[in-house]
Structure formats: structure tokens, C-alpha cells
Amino acid sequence: MRLLFTDEPLWTNALFLLRVWVGVIFIRYGLSLLHPTSMADFAETLWNISIPSPVVRAYLNKSTEFFGGICLVIGFLRRPFCILLILNMTVATFVFHKGLLLQNGMTTFLLPICCLTILLSPADTLSLDWHIAKRLKGRVPWREELCHCQFPFSC
Fold first, then answer.
1. Phi/psi zone of residue 98: left (φ > 0), alpha (ψ -120 to 50 degrees), beta?
2. Greatest CA separation for the chain
3. What is the pLDDT of residues 10-37, one digit of tens each?
4. Where are the beta strands (DSSP E) in the chain?
5. Which helix (H) or strand (E) holds 7?
6. Neighbours of 130 (CB within 10 A)
């Protein structure tokens, strides 16, 4: 019973599972970046729904998905990429899928919610962001380092 009714997490890095899975999905969606015919088809689809500059937008879209997915998997720059991916999937949901959330637009609607969860949550200890933040947090500003180490009487 204690396991069911507790305010303690069962695993403090549970966000890792969501972050990696969402990253894998975005990598899969962005893989068409590597296939010119897929990109041409996607650009044509964007042209058909009157998106301006469809070729440029197709490459921006798929680049964001592919590289954002890689960064989510390794946990590097997850917040900036989550913002870009939220914008990307919101446009996909409400422009491309016409806001039909319970039909074709369900995945493109759930992914920004997952990205929002990752964006608002602290970095898990299995991400590069956490290790970078930990290293930066313990660092002494260069001026204090300089004053205490080399010039003790000048500060």
C-alpha cells in the first residue's frame, strides 16, 4: 500500500523514457530529409495546402524534426528544440491536419504535449543538459578565480 500512496517518485529519471521515445519518433519523421524524392513529395504537399516557400519550409521542418529528435535522445539543448518542435507540430496539427485531433492529427497533437512536458520539467540525470548544468553550477566565475588565485590583495 505504501508504494501506491506515496508522493515519492518510483524512479527520478522517468522523464528519460518520454524524452528518448519522443526523440526516436521525431528522428523517424525527419528521416525523409535524407531522401530527395520524399522531400520533393513533402514540398509538393505543402504547396498544395498553400504554405509559402514550400521547399524551404519542407527542409526546415524535416531538419527540425531530425536534429531535434537526435538532441532529445541524447538530452542536449532539449528546451530550445522542444520549443521548435512544439511550433512545428502545432502547425502540422492545425494547418496540415485541419485541427482534426481525434483523426489524422492525433499524433501531431500528442507530440507537442509531450514536448511541453519535457520543456517544463527539470533535466533528468541521464541527459547531457543535466551534466552541463551541474558542471556550470559548480564553476566559480573567472573574476573570483583570478582574484583569489593570482592576486590575493587586489580584490
1. left
2. 71
3. 777 889 999 999 999 999 999 988 889 9
4. none
5. none
6. 16
